[in-house]
Amino acid sequence: MKCFLVLLSALLCFFTTGIEAFSAPPASHVASYPYTSPFATAPLHQPTSTTLFGKKEARAAGNERKNRTERVKKPKDDVIEVEGTVIESLPNAMFRCTIDGAPDTQEPVLATISGKIRKNFVKILVGDKVTIELSPYDLTRGRITFRKR
């Protein structure tokens, strides 16, 4: 009797919900289902490419930069770089420099030593060719960023 009731309820359920309830779900529903079985034979993640991100990318760029012999600088937006010659040495690591290619009527630039040159004890003497960064706000003052050899 119990078997008959179970069979009758299964048939009733089958006819009221339709045939789709007991068939396999369509492929679109299977793909959107987030759960993957731990026993699945397909890999759970896609293979990644060999691109580097973050610290590793910076380290790789640093290793490439070490092998170069030319001077590579990051471009700055708000400075004007000019070549000049030191004409006078002043106290407190200040120098008067003339800008190469400027007319003689232009007054000399008052320039100080940048932090890297100061840190590495680069000696700057009168007559040295230097690279000067000028601020767009005050073109009479600058920073010596490089001494030519």
Instruction: Provide the low-confidence segments as ranges.
Output: none
Topology as a string of helices (H) and strands (E): HHHEEEHEE
Mean pLDDT: 78
Alpha-carbon distance between the two ends: 106 Å
Biggest sheet details: 5 strands, mixed, barrel
Give the number of helices. 4
Strand content: 15-25%
Q: What's the total count of β strands?
A: 5
Look at the helices and sheets and give the structural class.
alpha+beta
Using only C-alpha atoms, the radius of gyration works out to: 38 Å
State the strand order across the main sheet.
1-2-3-5-4
Write down the overall geometry: rod-shaped
Helical residue percent band: 25-40%
